[in-house]
Fold each of these.
Amino acid sequence: MAVYKRTYRGYSGPLTNPLWRFTVLQRYAFQAVFKSRLLLIGYVGCFFGPILLLCLLYLNQNASVLALVGQQVGFLKVDSSLFLNFISWQGLLAGILTAFVGPSLVAPDLTNGALSVYLSRPFNRSEYILGKGMVLGSLIASITLLPGLLVFAVQSSLVGFTWFTDNFYLGVGTLLSCLILMAVFMLLGLAMSAFVRWKIVAGALILGVFAAGKGFGAVINNVMETGNGYFLDLQYLLSTVAGGLLHKTPENDPISPWAAAVALLVFCTMLLALINRKLRVCEVAG
Amino acid sequence: MNPAQLNLWKRQILAIVRIDIARTFLSKRGLWIYLLALSPAVPMIGHSLSRETDQLGNDAQIFAGIFQFYYLRIAIFFGCVGIFINLIRGEMLDKSLHFYLLGPVRREVLIAGKFISGLAAAITIFCGSVLVQWVGMFMHHPTDLLWAYMFNGPGLSHLISYLLAAALACLGYGSVFLWAGVRYKNPLVPATGILLWEAANGVLPAMLKKISVIYWLKSVCPISIPAPKDNGGGVWNLLIFDIDPAPASMAIANLLLLAAFVMIWAGIRARRLEIGYGTE
Amino acid sequence: MRQDIQLENVSKFYGEVLGVNKVHLTIPPGITSLVGPNGSGKTTLMNLLAGLLQPTRGRVIVCGHSPDDPERFFRITGYATQYDGFPRGLTGWEFVHCYLRLFGFSPAETERLAWEAIERVGLKEAAGRRIAGYSKGMRQRIKLAQAMAHRPKVLILDEPLNGLDPLARAETIALFRELGREGSHVLISSHILHEVDLISDQVIMMSQGYVVAEGQIRGVRDEISEQPMQVLIRCDKPEHLASQLFHHEQVVEARVHADRAGLVVRTRSADSFYKLLNQIALNGVTIESVAPADDDAQSIYGYLIGTEESTK
């Protein structure tokens, strides 16, 4: 007669709430991301611009300091242009951050067969995408959304409630622009990481999507004498949507903010479909 | 150095080139490089098919703009990132570099063979694409006008200049990315730095401008393109800044020197190359 | 020119992590097995021998050549690593053939050598198929073919028997023996200890980056004086023999064999014990055979490295 020792006991401790289970991925992914000292230095460097701007905003309202350097209060014009340029610059840094962080999110799991292990747990594809995406999303938010809103809040507190109410659209515009930027970069990072398993190539591809899209769009515009090439220019589309939200749209813009928003939506849907297709093959049938 | 030794090196380099060309450039993996190289040809052929007649000079101007602002700075740049970084780091990823290192090949010869194979592939792809683009751009013009432009006008010399610029771009960017592939575990870091440096070239002081590949390539291009007015591109407009040219001969000499310097450096560096396949 | 492999005080550190330390060895021709647990430094030592790693200190000389001179060194050295990576898209034949071209042989000679190596590892039928479709055992064999295609004097093989089925394993061991008889150096790392006994002329045992023993297996056993030797005595009256042996101080332990047709004895001094046994044999016990029971790699490995450590 065979005797089997009954030593196995299933886990009976507390479980993470299914609603927040995706954050488990985030916790471990952050540790991996910040293992790279270079990336950490780069990330900290992304705060240089916002800090400088906050200092300028403070000086902008500080009559005594300005008097010392022969300037007057309000030397810096805080309007939609400033916010648009701020978002553009921080967006560029966010793009570079995406190229470095994005590839390490999904590619190693696909290469090392870890994705099937994740998906064989009580953890579905959407939660995986959300968990991994939020790693990038939270990093991008920390260098775009949070500093943007902080700039708005500081300016409001320095100038007064009237400025706040008069320029409320700048706060809303910054919030929405940064959220759109975050969603696009998050999906782009995840899609390229799932599409190309070699991290270096995936990173180059992310930069390539921006640069080649811009360049190829310009080629189409020049050769075909049209403005439709801008639909391939991701930076232009983001900038146009942000411009619309911040009430700063050039008069002869070849594509409207609405058209740009639709193009971004189509682009994001395509990225999502790509991620879904790549991850579906790893899902273990329940 | 005896002739037998030279002959062996030649055979080894040829062997490396044959292995690399067959494995990398005739495979599915290299497909995106062809797409990148041929991408400008598509709208150009479309342009020709959609127009009966056009100003030939206008087309030449458009071609020059696309060549300088898209083809050199983006298509060849990223193509060379893919080709030349892959030569060493790609082998590391496939865990197959050691097969070369276990052959009776001097590391310097290995680097030379790898560089030549990358260069041969890059020149074939990108110069081939220049020819396709040229045909695509001008094919809708009447034959006699084209004949006159090519053989009695500046057409042929312009085409040769573009081919030369494309080949030099492959040489220049190729050597820079070979360096990045040999030197760095993650060559994306230097590649991004180089992209930003090359992009900012137009606004750099005169001395610093010369420490870039694009500055010398611009000097070989036959038509000077003025910087377009602001089109809402923000910081990306750095890509389309105009720069002051240098003599073409100096440009060629400098890019050849760069390639030679990188080859020597990479050869010396490769002597200390060790195999440690991580989880890249 | 010297025909042996010399490692002169070789150390390799990965930053602060020790790979191997102060390895000083001279390996004569024949089959040498490298044995040790995971992380003991076997692969590091092999990579150092083949020039894939450079020693932090010391130097490696193989048959008079240094890895710093690849043109001469790799003509006499072949190395099949444990990396399971292959160039993409190649067939078995293309794989062996394309790297042989680096040796500068004529095209006809290259082709001949490639086929010869493929035939020796029994992959002629599968040579036209892509390596990506090969089984683990076939991949091992094609790596072996690639390493030996240029007929090296020194063949370094990292876990060459991994993944081979019993038949292929026997054929491969026979091939190693043949190469050993031809006067080649065959340096093998293996974790299957009874095979090490079968194959090896000498062993090198490693633990935590240090060489803990080297030489012929029996010689190594003799050196481990602190461990009593085990001797298996086949005789007709094992219990009687045991009772007689207990009176002698050389005998540490005597245990009747499981089949009750022999006695396993542990003794501090083999020579004195054999003399004693001659006297006892005259006292009415019929001894059929006397043989050492622990001069195999498994036992020596256990004594030196500890049986609790897993082998690779």
Amino acid sequence: MPIRTEPMTVNVGPQHPSTHGVFRLRITFDGEEILEVEPILGYLHRGSEKLAEERNYVQVVTLTDRLDYTSSMINNQAYCLAVEKLLGVEPPLRAKFLRTLVAELQRIASHLVAVGFFIQELGAFGTPLMYAFRSRERILDLFEMLCGARITVSYMRPGGVFADAPPDFWPALTQFMHDFAIEFNEFEQLLLENEILLVRTRGVSPLPPEMAINCSVSGPVLRASGVNWDWRKMDPYDAYDKVEFDVPVGSHWDNYDRFWVRMQEVRQSMRIIDQCVAQIEPGPVRLVDLPLVIRPEAGAEAYGRVEASKGELGFYLVSDGGIAPYRCKIRSPSLINLTVTEHLLVGWKLADMIVSLGSVDINMGEVDR
Amino acid sequence: MNCQLAADNILFENALYRVIYDAVGSFLPCWLAYVAAGLAIMLILVNAVLLGAALVTWFERRLLGRFHNRIGPNRWGPFGLLQPIADLAKLMTKEDLIPAGADKITFSLVPLVMMAPLLLMTAVIPFSKNTALANLNVGVLFILAIGSLTTVAIFMAGWSSNNRYALFGAARAVAVLISYEVPVVISLLGVVMVAGSMSLANIVQAQAIPFLLVQPLALLIFLTGMSAELNRTPFDVAEAESEIIAGYHIEYSGIKFALIFAAETGAMLVVAATIATLFLSGWVGPFAEYIGWFWFLLKTLLVLFVFVWIRATYPRLRVDQIMALSWKFLLPLSLINLAATTLEVFFLRDSAGTLATIDLWIMAGINIPLALGCIFLFGNLVPENAKVLSVRPTTVVVPAVATVEVR
Amino acid sequence: MYGLAMAKGLMVTLKNLTKKPTTVQYPEERVKQHPRFRGEEFVWYEERCTGCASCAKYCPLGIIKIVTSPSETAPKQGDKYRLEVFDIEIQRCMFCGLCVEACPYDCLFMGSGFEQGKYSRKDMVLHVEDLRQADKHPSTFFRPQLEASGYDPRGGRPLNWREVGRESWRWHQQEKSGLRLEHSPVDTAGSQQESN
């Protein structure tokens, strides 16, 4: 006679060490296997979109810092691109290169956080996380040098960046790139072929490309599913049309590929930074014709998007001629990437659930906005 | 009164015990002296284990810090040595919570049930020449039997906490512990066979060359199995903090948590001591008559270092993979080791059934290549698709490009 | 062979064991703080302030409260106002620096500290008297003329209003024509190679 069993419902989060913030999953388990998943959001809702309607166009930059706080620079960039499209202006060339450079630095920092926590969730006690954060700290130091803050940078402004890099930034950047190449090699040696990592992630929670496209997934998750899609290539913004880089694409669509794509993207970002440093030329960094308080013409609309570290980050702005946007819609990649949660988790085990969630790399600041 | 300890008493060989016994025996009745001396030496042992557990906590945290390129705890006392004391003081002042719906008696018993086997295990370990509390002639069996009692405590904790995460942890722990008992026991049979005795003191004496060389496979299996039984990375599924937060001891707080934690680190210490005794020739070393304890401590520290090193490096395996490792990898290996050792002992022993040093060297010469070969063989049995990595086919699906109008 | 990468991983951690820790012991040692750091206590030069309240208008959170009255020292009526209230609610401040950016007279600077923890919310408001009396270690955030002088707010002496420079708009003009950039990355890369 078979033993009678019954499913067990467990609340994972909002206070759980591995849900990347205040994310809650109500999961029904059969033993260790997942039967049902119900994601519950909204614990970190701060009303960023509504707040943006109360602030003028430059002040909104400070709000974008707080969306995905592991990649503030890229958020700034997306918003500033949207405002520039709204006004129909172009930032100076040096500003474009500076933006590209800091966005790629931020992408490295963000991917290091993602990969570090991914391994932490696999159960490595802190070591890879600490190594990742060791490098990330150096990047944040560079940001402090550049704009006076480490996380909430507010570096970019519509029409450029607020100030040029200080003279000691460039030697520090060269030094960092030199050290980081060594540290990242070490990091790859520690992780990339580790057998435990492989058996834990290879073949787990595959996301087929059709499903990924249908769910409007973007960023490394989409590329790990074998879709070659990167806004930096498809619709180059800032200085991305002047640099060369490859888009790593996964072939097994699983957790390992999502991890692998991020590791490779860090390498590509390093390439882009080197090219930016080689190509950047003296010049103004901000459109000085642009007043501090911007008034676009009434009825203007614009959608600015970038390839953020987590996916396509877009700002849709509508102007009514006033000093504040009439509407500011944020397309946040983390929220939309979460639509595949159920597909990724159901049928897998509790331990894989945490890892799959980590491989999507959500950030609750961006999900709940 | 003049008391004499019988020569067949298991405490007879303990030098310290006899000193105390003779001292108190001069003015107490013999039965009382026997009990009093026993209590005194127990007090020493219990405190040593608890203090040792505290120091192991410090050692592990410091070392992990250095592995992480951090400094680690360094505020309290020289090099932060008093950190465990500070932690203990903090934990003692915390509220001792018993969750609603918990089975109160079972819940409160758990720290004791975890602590007791650990203290019992230390009784048979020879720290130096003639210093084991009891030179038990079934020492190895005793350690294995008592050591697996921890399972009961873990399951009690998971069951009585009335918490689903705790239940996950307990179920995982029981499954893992039970499957790892088998290869661990079989691997130690080889050691016992070579030494010709189950008494730990005799095993130490028998190690003319450390059994690390004679029984490399057994060491590997024992180390792996014990990592699993101690819930240490990469087998720490029972308290996987990234999955089930703290596993079976999620609901424990205050002094109960301190005791459980001390029991865990203490178990690590005892297992390290056991490995040092069984495989690294225990207290044997230059001037062992005088500083045997030093060699013993050094070897224990070495094993502890390996434990911490592994913890600092590896991610965690999944439960089913841990089971697979036990049944598909460790069990066959331990059987191979057992068979090889049996044959070697059968052919090499002399008429009295003992092995000379040269025989041990011969066995080492056979067993080390055997171990490497087995690991190589089993390493290559793993399916190919799991190990590939650098060169990857890219099957690229590019969706039809939707025309995006940007104003 | 399976298991080789695991051994490699062990070697990596062992190598890192022997490295010097990257962390520092905070209260005794500190990491280097860069001059542009956007710190807590604001530096305000009353001599320059006209009471225009641009900072208050530009603050995204509206935490700056300014009350003025006509100043007797002003050359002519309406040129300059006396500040009666200048409250900055530091507890809500997010240190974005937009107030500093908005100041047309270069009289408001970011500070350089970050250790101003207080026990009461009342104490978390910077009043006009605090701003007047504070030691003035201005951050070089958005003040390129100060940055060009090589001033380091941590460790540098307090500056008075004559020393912090006042050329914000001229800088903008220069930057527009690309004159201000003596330090291009190409130069620094070249000097790096020479030193190597």
Amino acid sequence: MSDDHSHSTDVADAASNVLCATPAIGHAKNEHCRDLLTRAGPPGTILGVTVASSPGERMSEWSNAIDPVQTKLSFVDVSNGGRSAAMSVDGFGGQHGAMVNMVEIEDVDLHQLGTQISAQLDAATDGPVVVCLDSLTDLFQFESERKIHRFLNVVTTRVEAADAIAHYHIDANGHPTSTIETLAPLFDVTIRADESL
Amino acid sequence: MAAPPDVVLVYVPDKTKRRSITTALRDRWSVRTAASLDAATTSLDETIAVVVVGGDDSTAIEHALTNSPNECDHIQVLWLGSNEADIAASAVKVLAEDVTAAELQQTVARLHQRARYNRLLTTCYELSRARSEAKADGLSDAVDTHDQTLESVQRELDDLAADIDDIDAFDVALEK
């Protein structure tokens, strides 16, 4: 059951699943993301789930927080998730020798997305295993609140069963309060960051 | 939370086959039988978890499920037959007509799990929405009550999820 905490990622330390509601504009999203990635120490494995954002973009944001040589990186990437032409599934040149496992899904298909996330969790051998899903707002472009709620119910359970930790990004200003409140019980902690961060 | 009734409806027009299927299932579940589409349609209600359909055409039962005035979204359909062209879109499982009793029971048990998982996911969503509305209205006691019920529902879901594979879990969640 979600505890409502603003700003702080410290309260998420022991949480398996964290909802991270931050404005789409500004630095809060990426600052919280970096904090949540490393809340259990240096991650052994990171599973990134990208819809409109690209794996390259996420890697770039994480570069100061993780050692891509020491951390195993996997992505489940939705190719047609509403990505702008400016963001491609770029290579990882400049990431100092990072080896990345990439699973491509052509369209937003929650069934495929969910089973791939679960498969990657099962395959992960180096802990702590950290999942970053970016973003629920992107999924809402394609699916209903009801369906996303049911999807997340399965995913959050799978994350916990795998002894992994996960955070899920959502645009704090992109949805009515009722939507975020309806999703909140699925998570152990909901972080809400205002624009001042 | 008390477990809902999980009745199996056996809709098989052929009397001998209907009896055989009912015999295989009735030691584990409450079973209703229907020899005609009208009888099957009348039997569809929220107590039914699984419908076992035999005969030449299962598409009519799919229509009945879709148009039933009762809560039937969670119902899982098992089709026994050999003509794949007649398989209804809603048939989650298809088994051969001469399936063994053991395989039939195993499959119905799996479908019961799916039906229960479906109901719990729906309940969880509805409670979450109700909680959200109560919070918006400043009804803290109602929020607390919903929180307690949600915790109980989520525990049941977590227990059930441990026994359901990914394909079934996401099939049910995404209503495929």
